[in-house]
Amino acid sequence: MLMRTDPFREMDRIVQQLSGTSGTWSKPSVMPMDAYREGEEYVIAFDLPGVSTEAIDIDVERNMLTVKAERRPVAKADSVKVELSERPLGVLSRQVMLADTLDTERIQADYDAGVLTLRIPIAERAKPRRISIGGETGRKQISG
Question: What is the pLDDT at residue 26?
Answer without folding.
Answer: 55
